[in-house]
Fold these 4 entries.
Entry 1:
Amino acid sequence: MSAAPVILFPQPAQSLSDFRCRNRQRVRWSEVDLQKVVFNAHYLNYVDIGMSEYWRQLAVPYEEGTQRLGGELFLKATQIEYHASARLDDVIDIGIRVTRLGNTSVQFEAGIFCPDRLLVSASMVYVFADGAQRPVPLPDAYRQMVQRYEAGEEVVEVRTGSWNVLGQEAMRLRMQVFVREQGIPEEIEADEFDVTSLHAVAINGLGMCVATGRMLPSANQESRADVMRIGRMAVARPLRGTQLGRQVLDALVDAARRQGKRQVELHAQCTAENFYRRAGFTVVGERYEEAGIPHVSMTRDL
């Protein structure tokens, strides 16, 4: 049965503020002609950058997400209109939004601005198709994700709970990040503390865990009663920098606060030190190695 078309935005965008999905780029030397003006074909590259960002904004890693959807979006048609030119070293903003959901197709609108002046507007029609590139109906999960996102709603649900409830999805992500990506031995990654920890997961519209962490009492026996330890913080690689990790961290910190704890501590990989600093954590002691990776201890008073 064909789904009735859904019109999300009947009127063309007038400004960058009309787009929830935005991406900022600087014009590079390789993108301009002898007059230092962006060559017209590169605007389609900018639009494609915006399309990739749209998947990130939906909190969906593209490859794994399309596997769960059972198909991919294939570009069918593009219409582009040029209004003004971008030049070398200009900072441009790329806006992307879905304007129409058909039975098997999705229509996107793009706007490229510098700084607030509309340089290029474009319309793209994508068709959802299976592995043989045969058009098939858009999955309901995709429709719902897009409609929630364009309505300004949250794209993930952060849940806290036990290992029995959340462990399967959390471990899938942890294996991707810690074992396959960082090379940590599997026998170290999975330990006896999982079953007694409080876990937090961020679940996207496809039911995928895209960020996770856990909390348990401090290993320091003297402070065990009122200090909690956060660990196993992981975010899907394509989605880092999208605040998913912060949402999971905040959920665990809030849980410790509700339990009446006075402090939370963690062993941060040094590459993530600034992330935790922005969340109110401070460094305690010198750097050290853990599982072959440089770490630093950090704490936050509640």
Entry 2:
Amino acid sequence: MTLAPRLSHIAAQASVSEATVSRVLNGKPGVADTTRQRVLAALDVLGYERPVRLRQRSAGLIGLVTPELTNPIFPAFAQVVEQVLAGHGYTPVLCTQMPGGATEDELVEQLVERGVGGIVFLSGLHADTSSDPSRYASLTERGVPFVLINGYNERISAPFVSPDDHAAMRMAVRHLTDLGHQRLGLAVGPLRYVPSRRKQEGFLEAVGEGQSGLVQSTLFSVEGGQVAAGALLDQGCTGIVCGSDMMALGVIRAARERGLDVPGDLSVVGFDDSQLIAFTDPPLTTVRQPVQAMATAAVGALLEEIGGNPVQRTEFVFQPELVVRGSTAQAR
């Protein structure tokens, strides 16, 4: 049973009078557009159904579809996306994909039913080369603008925002070789994901002829890093580059279980540099994703699409930077 909207609740949430809420709900004129959007957003936030006549596409709501938020890089992106949207008067609707929860397609359907003005996809199915990209074409046909972060697919016509994974691996490998490491490993997520594949390519290119480079593809998690580290340490690696900071923490855990010191016996480089990573033990050397710049650009591209001035439907690539901390040291 759907509860009838309480005018007082909606008025308080939207910071307007009950009379204004009544005018909006009854489709009466004489309400400023920004005020109308605030009232509609308040309905959504409080979980009330919009009156049928008000369900046309709202300029006020933008969907943000993210993976699970256990990896702190995803909340970091979500926070910047939400800040930038709020600064432009939009209300973000966060949709998180949990294992066993709603699928990306189900979340998108819910967002479209809510009448969102556009959608930001963060590390979604677009990054998975084994998934069908036609779902995005059908979204375009339905007139819903969208932008995609992390994971380029040339079969999808939309603006993409990515970090330069090849450059990231060059920085990490150069740092380790400058420290005298000659046998290097890469712990990375499943290779069906574009960012994993690009990191593998960049790593092997950077290692080149003179060095030895080994790749272990596991899961993008602490446990995945731990499993990858076991195989790479068995093969004599003294420096390991990781596809995410979470994997790097797993590598450090695996090294300690073997009685190895980080960075004395093993140097470890992560990827992402979300907020807490400077405070790990040891503080993690990592390649920083330019989250602020990427998220701001993604929202900017989406708002241009919504405004009828579409930007180029191509990939915008952002430069990462190496942040040297305490998990890397001179090779013994």
Entry 3:
Amino acid sequence: MVLGKGTWVVAGAMVVVWMVLSGPSAPNGSLDSRSLPAKAVRDVVPGRVMTWNLCNPCESANDDRAAEIAKFAPQVIGVQEACVGDVAKIRDYLEDLHGLVYHVEYGSVLRNWGRCGGAPWNPGGYGQAILSATPMTDAEVVEYPDGGSEDRGYMAVTTTVGDRTVRVFNTHLAERRQEPVRAEQVGVLAKAIARHQQTVVIGDFNAVPDAAELTKLWPLAKDADPGCHPAPTATCRVTTDWQSKFDYVFLRGVASRGQHVDPNSVSDHHVVYADLVVG
């Protein structure tokens, strides 16, 4: 059957309408970043720094983790309990689905098949990671001499916060009920922090503000939340589902415009982020 010119025009228009309504797609329902409209590309919030324990093992999907981060669009993000493969996927989702582009540095101190999967002879890296909107330099990964029940450490990078160059540390201290181990870890971390004048220290410290193991840290840095300090009169917002403050944005030579805590259904730790003034 031969169709007239008018029929082909109508059919072509219907195809175009269908393509517009269905939108770009890729396997598993994710968007193809090459097809993102220009308006989907977003800017990060200058000076905003975020810390988040991703929760591992948990059944959280990496696209949900990326969506939680994208709500706040921080300039720098530090995550803990992070598998290298998960962070790579989160970074891709942030770009493909939310138009947020980040550089990534990994602070893996443990290779653990149970935590992160992978081949039995090549398990996935596990530890911390930092995502930054600008390139990072002088990356350093330090494993604590004693990790406690699981290898732990800190990582550090030099990157841009606001419009200034700052040294950023990200750590995860030993699990709860291991106070002496955490005290030794804080001693190692404090020596590294003291070498820098402008520093942001983020992470899951597994200790409340007045815990003895944080004693060496408070003289060097202050909480981004001006109301939070070790004194009994402090007003520190909880950062975990079990109503404890374990997650911190510590500042040295950097001022805070304010700190925020966001409970979420993705992790047993809340998102903590601060808007900073550098310089």
Entry 4:
Amino acid sequence: MTTEPSKWNVTDIPDQTGRTAVVTGANSGLGIATVEALAGAGAHVVLAVRDVKRGEAAAADVRGSMEVRRLDLADLASVREFAAGWQGGLDLLINNAGVMNIPESTTKDGFEMQFGTNHLGHFALTNLLLPHITDRVVTVSSGAHKMPGSPRIRFDNLNLTGEYAPITAYSQSKLANLLFTLELQRRLAESGSSVRALAAHPGYAATNLQSHDGSALRRAVMRVGNRFMAQDSRAGALPTLYAAMQDLPGASYVGPDGLGEMRGAPTLVGRSPAASDPATARRLWTVSEELTGVAFPQPASVPA
């Protein structure tokens, strides 16, 4: 009689004592579940959150070494302030924060909110912190990057002015996350850095994201889905944690192993052809540098 090997979970996270991690959007959902797992393994975790009081309230319920710092990804001045205040090494940056399917709005810098928050904010943060990062960057994407309708980067209208649709904007931002990871890894490898860039998606996880959907009908449908179909936030955080801990190649993409990648244990998964195009990734990087005023720096692990 053979015993099926157990699937990867938080108990497989190695000792993180002496390591430091930043988790964006860390006061609820996938973020706080990620914090809980990392802090529980001994890491010092910085909760990078827009609302410090909410972050402190969330951290109070988690055991381990933590601190809360303000970060508003929809405001590039806040991103710069957060990065400028960083001192010392940073082992792990987890770009987890995001907004989903919200009504049309803009960031403080005038970008469409989903693209500006989910992609541009994390693009700027990563590059500004990269001189401190010593291990890896994990960016949370979504299966929505390959929604029906062939999501693409609308280079001619990134803000979707005059053609805004919440799902289209969300899909574009999640596609951008994967293209960012692809080009970041290329640049890291080219520079000789040992830092790795990876991406993950949670499958269908019940979080606060769904409650902000711009459609009342979709909110109602997702309330039912969250109750009867979705994984909880701890299960949804496992792909991110797997990408952060396992010895995987740069640019790897991790998601659940179940039907339709909706739930299950973390494993390597595929991405759409649009998310695998190096030319589009390079073009998006150039545009993102122009929009944010932030460029790729010398990574920390490159020998002087």
